[in-house]
Amino acid sequence: MIIARVIGSVVSTSKAEKLQGKKMLVVQPLDMETITPEGKPLVSIDTVGSGFGEIVMVVGGSSARQTEITKNTPVDSAIVGVIDQIEIEGKLTLNQNKGG
């Protein structure tokens, strides 16, 4: 599992039948301590209703096919959560709690 920021979307009118109706987003992997870009962007299927600019949890490989939305679907990356806060060794590296 990695963390990433949603930086864009992908529109594809011609695709595998099981991908019809799936929201495809471009995510930029991030370093968990510095919240800076790390590696190349990738396309992930959104399973939680995330949006542009949000920091999300992304799973890959067979784990990406374990959600109700992606079960038996040809995907290799899926967004499975929107992150509110990251704490590493007692230090908050990310705090997006709303209202607090």
Question: Would you give an account of this structure?
Answer:
The protein has strands at 2-10, 24-29, 42-46, 55-60, 77-82, 85-88, 91-95. Helices cover 0% and strands 41% of the residues. The mean pLDDT is 94. By secondary structure, the chain is an all-beta fold. The chain has one domain: EutN/Ccml (OB fold (Dihydrolipoamide Acetyltransferase, E2P)), CATH 2.40.50. The protein starts with a strand and ends in a 5-residue tail after the last strand. The chain contains no helices and 7 strands. A 5-stranded mixed β-barrel has the order 1-2-3-5-4. Strands 6-7 form a two-stranded antiparallel ribbon.
Largest sheet: 5 strands, mixed, barrel
CATH class: Mainly Beta
CATH topology: OB fold (Dihydrolipoamide Acetyltransferase, E2P)
Q: Tell me the domain tally.
A: 1
CATH architecture: Beta Barrel
Protein name: EutN/CcmL family microcompartment protein
Which secondary structure elements does this structure contain, and how are they paired or packed?
Elements (H helix, E strand, L loop, with lengths): L1 E9 L13 E6 L12 E5 L8 E6 L16 E6 L2 E4 L2 E5 L5
Parallel strand pairs: 3-5
Antiparallel strand pairs: 1-2, 1-4, 2-3, 4-5, 6-7
Keyword list:
100 residues, mainly beta, OB fold (Dihydrolipoamide Acetyltransferase, E2P), 5-stranded mixed barrel, two-stranded antiparallel sheet, 7 strands, elongated, EutN/CcmL family microcompartment protein, EutN_CcmL
